[in-house]
């Protein structure tokens, strides 16, 4: 029996993002955006940064957030009204939103050795410390760097590709689930359920080496785990944006956070016990690290982490990886189901690389770049983690305004992704634009940027590519959605708000 107290990673949260093809009122060209000054060479003071009306004494713009269900829509409206830079004031801090790629690049180029996202990291870190837990995703400075660097070896491509056999197996189970649940007309009424099973199964595969069949999970643990992750993300938004009253008395968000965290720890312990109970023995006898061995085992064999810390990190990775990957995949499958021509193009490419009986691995996936392009194109339209803020240690001039050090600066990823001056036909789903267009690298940052970027990016990309390979190879997917743009909401992560109804027709019937 392994005992531990976990940390949990659920960073993907921050105030801001937007939806809809838009162009802001106060236009700014990409060319002049790299300049921080106005035409006359002057830089305006911070107080002049456009700001919405509705600020009230003490809580300032906080009241504007009351009752909103989609930060995306909220910020879309404000970019439209105020232009490519605006600010919201909260008690004790201002947050600046920027939807211009050159300005975003400037922010990231100045993020320094220890990038910090925003003050919310400190809030969550404060709570975790009280729980006697920690998580590098919420740490800062040298503490963050040291803890993150202990987990570096698992990111090498050979290791991530080492999980392909397991990813293939889980993806085949997705296909089985499709057959199990589709109706007589071939429709799966809500593919989100199957996607959630898949994302939990792949995550527990690379984290623990587990082989779960969530749809037939008699104990109900998979559902509880998913609910706890979702619940945690929901209350993180409150803890980040509301006054830090939880430091004085236990607010509802604070209590919910602890409740969901306790649940995660409880379930994580069950998984760890079940799949890694002989870990100490394996770590003791093995001097080799095997690509594709579970993360938990690798960390223990490397010996840089205690058993307690290794298991804590395993929980963090489940928390960080499950919903992000599931929502992204939901948007990808929706987009594919609306675009048979994209499926056909992908089908042509994958069947030119592998035969019927072969399974994708590292080598073959690299010969299927179109899968990557269609994921990117989906992330442009639907950035699931639209908030990659940075709080700089130094002052910076952005789009003609002076922004003081320690201000939270949030790129408007979704606004940029749908800006008609940056993309031709921005609302059109066109994966080919990633091979042909000259696209500014700081428009699309679905996994963030720099040393603080998503730790699990390679895992997520490989998992998704294997699933897409299997589904496109096996099925034609169609949907009868009336609109092109799928409605979505979310205060933390962006997720589809309606059932994703897809017809799966086997290619060989
Ligand atoms: C499509 C799926 C995913 C998306 C869209 C996503 C997105 C992000 C973003 C935007 C960040 C913040 C980056 C920044 O501030 O520059 C982040 C951080 C992080 N992600 Fe992911 N992520 C995904 C999957 C995963 C997976 C599968 C894992 C674990 C295996 C993971 C683990 C982490 C961790 C640990 C951090 C914190 C890094 C740090 O603070 O140093 N993510 N992710």
Tell me about this structure.
The protein has a domain at 30-118 and 150-218 and 231-240 and 326-506: Cytochrome p450. Helices cover 47% and strands 8% of the residues. The chain is built from 19 helices and 11 strands. The strands form 4 sheets. Strands 1-2-7-4 form a 4-stranded mixed β-sheet. It starts with 29 loop residues before the first helix and ends with a strand. The protein binds protoporphyrin IX containing FE (HEM). The site of protoporphyrin IX containing FE has 27 residues, from helix 13 and helix 19.
Low-confidence blocks of residues:
1-36
Mean pLDDT: 86
Q: According to CATH, what is the class of the domain at 30-118 and 150-218 and 231-240 and 326-506?
A: Mainly Alpha
CATH level-four homologous superfamily name of the domain at 30-118 and 150-218 and 231-240 and 326-506:
Cytochrome P450
Structural class: alpha+beta
Radius of gyration: 23 Å
Could you tell me the strand content as a percent range?
Answer: 5-15%
Which hetero ligands occur in this complex? protoporphyrin IX containing FE
Order of helices and strands: HHEEHHHHHEHHHHHHHHHEEEEHHHEEEE
Major sheet strand order? 1-2-7-4
Query: Assembly type of the shown chains?
Result: single chain
Shape: globular
CATH topology of the domain at 30-118 and 150-218 and 231-240 and 326-506: Cytochrome p450
